[in-house]
Amino acid sequence: MKTIKYYKLVRDKIPELIEKEGKQSVCSVLSDEEYLEFLDRKLSEELEEYLEDKSMEELADLLEVMMAVAKARGSSIEEIERIRQQKADKRGGFEKKILLEEVRIV
Question: From what superkingdom does this record's organism come (predicted)?
């Protein structure tokens, strides 16, 4: 029997999908503290994957992890959107494509 080790946070239905393929998965449930740690790792992993191929699928994966992080930290995507909107109202967004090259102190 061949074994592949992963030790990473996966989506909820992944063990079920593995079993449907006739394979066995060994999983455990993380503590809340471990969950936050693995979510942070997953966030980095998904960002790296998006940066590699720029696909909307990878961007959606990144958003899914962001939503899980918000929930795990006692917030919500709606709260994040409210904060994002406040910052956009105060400081603007990124639509004008402005590159700040330097600031001169006079």
Answer: Bacteria
Would you state the pLDDT for residue 103? 95
- Report the Cα–Cα distance between both ends of the chain, in Å, rounded: 71
In angstroms, the CA 65 to CA 44 distance is: 10
Mean pLDDT, rounded, for 21-35: 97
* Cβ burial, residue 66 (10 Å; 0-12/13-18/19+): middle
pTM for the whole thing? 0.87
Those residues whose C-beta lies under 8 Å from the C-beta of residue 24, and which sit 6 or more positions away, are 18
Name the token pair of 82.
Answer: 């409210």
Are 80 and 66 a contacting pair, CB within 8 Å? yes
H/E segment holding residue 19: helix 14-20
Residue 62: how many other CB atoms lie within 10 Å = 19
Side-chain half-sphere of 37: how many Cα atoms within 13 Å?
A: 7
Tokens representing 37 are 């740690």
